[in-house]
Amino acid sequence: MPRRFALPRLCALALTLAYLGAPAPLAADTFRAMLGGRVLGTLEYRGGGGDAGTLTTTLDNTPLGVGDGRYEGVSRRVSAGGRRMVQYTSDSRSARESRQISVLLDRGRAIETVVAPASERTALSVPGAVPEGVLDPVAALGRIIGAGDCPSAFRIYDGRRVIQVRPLGSVAEGGGKRCRMTYDVIAGPGHLSPFRFTALKLDLIYQAGSLAQMEVRAGPFTLRLMR
How far apart are CA 152 and CA 143, in angstroms? Predict the structure, then answer.
């Protein structure tokens, strides 16, 4: 794959570091996706109470348009077999590809995963291969936004891989706090074929108890998500 595709696909990945009886969505948290001084698109998160929420990412200004596309994710509470569970669904579309994923989680344990097209499935698209104690991507972002301070460690399962996010420490910055985190793919394929990134750096900057900015670094690229 030509190297020019790496940067916009990293943006799609980063936007990507979701109801039965769910309360009405809260006001949206909106971030601009920035690479240097260029606005690539926007990310909008709406919490629905607890880990429920919706996430919409629109990229419409990537270099040459090669990374333009839209992602919609939903994390919602459902009832199945008399149990309260969480269902994650996502729909990713661009001019080059599309992917739909559905994951059913029972108290952090994957019990059903559907990926379409089937060619996008991985070894981690089998629920039995997924470790327990995972969040879906939308719930994970909601946890970051709602933390108000450096979050504790958590795991993410997106239907194709498992990611471990861990705190490294924090420093005071501009009257707020910068939380330094690691983002490591611990099972399943890395991100961005053929590069297969498995380790990224994630910085969360909180001001007055609110998430003001996120920075995702992979190799020479730094993507900033700014309010």
Answer: 10
Walk along the chain (227 residues) in steps of 10 and give the mean pLDDT of each run.
45 45 62 92 89 92 84 93 92 89 97 96 97 97 93 97 97 94 94 76 95 91 91
The whole model's pTM is what? 0.85
Q: 122-130: which pairs have CB atoms within 8 A and are 24 or more residues apart?
A: 122/160, 122/161, 122/188, 122/189, 123/188, 124/157, 124/159, 124/160, 124/161, 124/162, 124/187, 124/188, 125/159, 125/160, 129/187, 130/157, 130/162, 130/187
- Other Cβ atoms less than 10 A from the Cβ of 66: the count is 16
Enter the tokens of residue 13: 């990945």
